[in-house]
Write a structure and sequence with these properties.
about 70% helix; single chain; mainly alpha; two-stranded antiparallel ribbon; 2 strands; about 0% strand
Length: about 400
């Protein structure tokens, strides 16, 4: 393996392009802008100090960066990880009144359960039985909101997203590989001229890891640890695998799940409450906008990992950094970057007449955003699709 490392490094340099770097940046941009505030709310609910909040952002950024780089490098596929955004939302409502040490113990308990799912191969066996049409429908349902947000942004501020849409169409017509970099450039320049880009408010500062010794209580383990495990697996890892499969990649699932679980276990004392496979942000790096050749898109995953590491080191300034970008810019670039993946997911989901009805049920439930029992719509979309598939097959 060591003799192959220099050769693989040379291949990485050759496979790294402006489009892969931009895809990696946009993927991380989507991840942070969509959930950084929720993470702060979760940390504050646990009674975290400002230093501890910075430590949470450090742990999540470093953990996501290391696992993203390791997975993408090992399997030469764009395999991105992230933190559990539904998990953060769950913590924001369930952590008030729970001592920080017990919260850390619950994080570690959840990480242990995730690791066991990977080591035993249980999760992988379940995923191998999932029809591809349902996986694609699941991904399309997750991504639909971002496509809709692209046009909802025009209701708030017409000129900026409209200009970015124009840049996207021109880019797709004349320089397809660099359409998204062009969109981002046009958006930033326009935001500067409109006075809505506030980079002067950003004050860089390194985050300092702050470890807290865990303590165990059955109340926290049952009330926080188990729901965090269920939400992370059902609402994050499930669509994460669906995104990978829908993009045409087939890595071994168990090592990925085990890797995120073990990394969470190590970083939980610093505030890394849950790492998992990414779906929405990963789709940016797994689509043709990242690179025309699928076997070279792993470079976008590694670029995303590097950006994760940088932002993890500067975790104390993450909120002010992304607050500098106008919301309409973020909504537009995310929606445009994910359009090809959304279209491919819908085509794959509805292409087979055998699975079309079940895939449509999966898509609609997932896109609805419902969360009965606090479990995300992705899980219930899959349940609905599988039940529909089983019922429809009974008539044959």
């Amino acid at each position: 393996m060591s003799s192959q490392t220099p050769s693989r490094a040379r291949h990485l340099l050759g496979d790294t392009t402006l489009s892969t770097i931009t895809a990696g940046f946009i993927a991380v941009l989507i991840g942070y802008t969509s959930s950084a505030v929720i993470i702060f709310q979760a940390a504050e609910a646990a009674g975290a100090t400002q230093a501890q909040i910075g430590s949470w952002m450090w742990a999540l950024g470093i953990g996501s960066g290391l696992t993203t780089i390791a997975f993408s490098w090992r399997y030469r596929m764009p395999l991105l990880t992230a933190w559990s955004t539904p998990g953060a939302a769950l913590l924001a409502t369930s952590l008030p009144g729970v001592p920080m040490s017990e919260a850390i113990g619950a994080f570690m308990f959840s990480a242990l359960l995730i690791t066991l799912c990977g080591v035993t191969g249980l999760f992988e066996r379940v995923m191998h039985r999932l029809p591809r049409a349902l996986a694609s429908a699941l991904l399309a349902g997750v991504l639909l909101r971002f496509g809709l947000d692209l046009f909802l942004a025009m209701e708030q501020q017409l000129s900026l997203p409209l200009a970015m849409c124009g840049a996207y169409l021109a880019g797709k017509r004349f320089w397809p590989r660099y359409a998204i970099p062009g969109v981002l450039l046009v958006g930033v320049v326009m935001a500067m001229f409109m006075g809505s880009l506030h980079l002067g408010d950003v004050t860089p500062a390194l985050a300092r890891p702050d470890a807290i010794l865990p303590s165990l209580s059955w109340q926290a383990l049952i009330g926080v640890g188990v729901p965090l495990f269920v939400v992370t697996m059902a609402s994050q890892n499930l669509p994460g695998i669906a995104a990978i499969r829908a993009a045409g990649y087939a890595p071994p699932i168990s090592p990925l799940i085990s890797g995120t679980g073990l990394t969470t276990l190590l970083l939980a004392p610093f505030g890394g409450f849950a790492l998992n496979l990414a779906a929405i942000s990963a789709a940016v790096c797994q689509g043709p906008e990242a690179h025309a050749e699928p076997q070279r898109r792993y470079a976008a995953g590694i670029a995303a990992g590097v950006f994760y590491l940088i932002l993890g080191l500067f975790g104390a300034t993450v909120t002010s950094l992304f607050a500098a970008f106008p919301a309409e810019l973020v909504m537009a670039v995310a929606g445009l970057a994910l359009l090809p993946t959304l279209g491919a997911g819908l085509a794959d989901a509805l292409g087979s007449s055998e699975h079309r009805d079940a895939a449509l049920v999966t898509f609609l439930i997932t896109a609805s955003g419902i969360s009965p029992g606090g479990i995300g719509a992705a899980f219930w979309g899959l349940v609905g699709g599988l039940v529909s598939l089983w019922v429809l097959r009974q008539r044959h």
